[in-house]
Design brief:
Layout (H helix, E strand, L loop, with lengths): L4 H11 L4 E2 L2 H4 L16 E3 L4 H13 L4 E4 L17 E4 L6 E5 L4 E4 L5 H10 L16 H7 L6 H4 L6 E7 L5 E5 L11 H5 L8 E8 L6 E9 L2 H13 L6 E6 H11 L9 E9 L2 H17 L2 E6 L3 H12 L1 H6 L4 E4 L9 H14 L3 E7 L4 E8 L4 H20 L18 H4 L2 H14 L13
Parallel strand pairs: 2-4, 3-4
Antiparallel strand pairs: 1-2, 5-6, 6-9, 7-8, 7-9, 10-12, 10-13, 11-12, 11-15, 14-16, 15-16
Helix pairs in contact: 1-3, 8-10, 8-13, 13-14
């Protein structure tokens, strides 16, 4: 549905003509995200550069009944930034990209939503502090998008995920007004905890104007290692054994043989291509001796569970290679076939062996190539199906396999998504994990904050 020239001029009057995009060539850039879903072009895209402009644009869109989709870098894997309703406007936040404050005394930072995650983490590190959340897309993803999807990352096992670092924020509501929640203080009970509600809200309740993040001191010592296994089940059992042994590594990552081969071909990091699986493990802490003790315990568990070899990174360069290899898992797999379907099945950590075994059986059943990697330490696996969407028969098998993967995850008391979000991709399974009363409750809450249901219309709870 085309936007009237008069309304376009109103937006241009608010933010300038150069920040309003109406040409198809521009709008196509905002019609898709990293999910394997059909692109949908918005009617308009706008890029405010100040908080005041953002507020005015939201009010103008809402008053004119325009569905609003907020977009940072579009790296999400759930379809939550794909416009769905006719006449949609995409509000781009990547020009709201200032780090407003890094407070070294009180350990917090204030940022706009378009700040790139890795750039923020580097700025914090330069001040001698630490922002732990490290999603795989951190080199291009924005902090607003991280909050909207409650992004995790490799360090989530020990340090938590994005929601664990949100102290407060300012939110633009449907009237274009600023709603303030949270504080720069450690304790805060003034009003409802709206900041927690906004984490994983996927742009359905309001739009972030700025965010206050907690910072922490960095660890003083760390040790990284790579454990090889000749059987996937032995690697899975090691994960369960490490956790049940009350050891909490900074990271505990899993790669099966498919991932190992593709990553090694891509990175030449020296991964053991004959291994059935590897665990990439890092322990850290405030005292070198305690780190050494934890590392020894981790190695003992891995050996008892059947590890054939354990390599310890002796230098910072070796350590970097280990984590570079893990971060290249998805890009390496994505180069293998035309279509990469990356899923986000998450189960209780004790159920990792059962989930890995089930994924392997599903791959055999549907004659598909699946590479599994992920944050095994917190139960968050990423079964990645390599296929070609243009092959309708093959993709039908892919869709059946995805259904079964989610069924298994739920039977194991898991969840549909640990960190990628619901969006369009998983909305149809929401009631299966919860129930109708839960869906209706969330819809009532959503309508209270968005009476016209225009914020990210058609997503998450519909």
């Amino acid at each position: 549905m085309p936007i009237s020239p008069a309304l376009i001029k109103e937006f241009q009057g608010v933010i300038g003509a150069e920040q309003v995009f109406t040409e198809d060539a521009d709008l196509q850039c905002y019609s898709y995200d990293a999910a394997v879903l059909t692109p949908v072009m918005p009617a308009l895209a706008i890029a405010p550069t100040t908080q005041e402009q953002l507020c005015k644009c939201v009010k103008l869109a809402y008053d004119n009944d325009m569905p609003i989709t907020v977009r940072g870098s579009g790296t999400n894997l759930s379809g939550s930034t794909i416009p769905q309703k006719a006449g949609s406007v995409v509000i781009l936040t990547n020009r709201l990209n200032r780090i407003l404050e890094i407070n070294e005394e009180d350990l917090y930072a204030v940022v706009e939503p378009g700040v790139i995650t890795a750039q923020f983490a580097a700025a914090v590190t330069a001040k001698g502090l630490f922002y732990p959340p490290d999603p795989g897309s951190q080199s291009i993803s924005t902090l607003g998008g991280n909050v909207a999807h409650n992004a995790g990352g490799l360090r989530g096992l020990k340090y938590g995920v994005t929601k664990d670092y949100i102290m407060g924020m300012e939110i633009v509501d449907f009237n274009g007004e600023l709603v303030k929640t949270g504080s720069r203080t450690v304790k805060y009970v003034t009003g409802y905890n709206m900041a927690a509600l906004m984490a994983a809200s996927e742009g359905t309740l309001g739009i972030f104007s700025n965010i206050i993040f907690k910072l922490v001191p960095p660890p003083k010592a760390s040790k990284a290692m790579l454990a090889e296994f000749d059987d996937v089940n032995k690697a899975s059992a090691s994960v369960a054994g490490i956790i049940s042994g009350h050891i909490v590594p900074c990271t505990l990552e899993f790669l099966d043989n498919n991932c190992i081969k593709y990553v090694e071909a891509d990175t030449k990091a020296g991964l053991p291509v004959d291994a059935a699986a590897i665990l990439l493990i890092e322990v850290d802490g405030g005292h070198p001796q305690l780190v050494e003790e934890d590392a020894a315990k981790v190695m003992e568990v891995c050996r008892k569970c059947g590890s054939t070899n354990i390599r310890i990174a002796q230098t910072a360069e070796e350590k970097f290679k280990i984590w570079e290899a893990r971060r290249n898992a998805l890009p390496a797999l994505a180069r293998a076939r035309p279509t990469t379907v990356l899923e986000d099945a998450t189960v209780p950590r004790s159920q990792i062996p059962a989930m890995v075994a089930a994924v392997n059986e599903i791959a055999k059943k549907y004659k598909l190539e699946i590479g599994t990697f992920g944050h095994a330490g917190d139960g968050n696996l990423h079964p990645t199906i390599l296929c070609d969407r243009r092959d309708k028969e093959e993709f039908a098998r892919v869709e059946a396999a995805v259904d079964e993967i989610f069924d298994v995850a739920l039977k194991l008391k898991g969840t549909l998504s640990g960190e990628h979000g619901i969006g369009l991709a998983k909305a149809k399974w929401m009631e299966k994990e919860t129930n109708r009363a839960t869906i209706d409750f969330n819809l009532r809450l959503r309508r209270a904050l968005d009476p016209k249901m225009l914020f990210n219309a058609g997503k998450k709870f519909v």
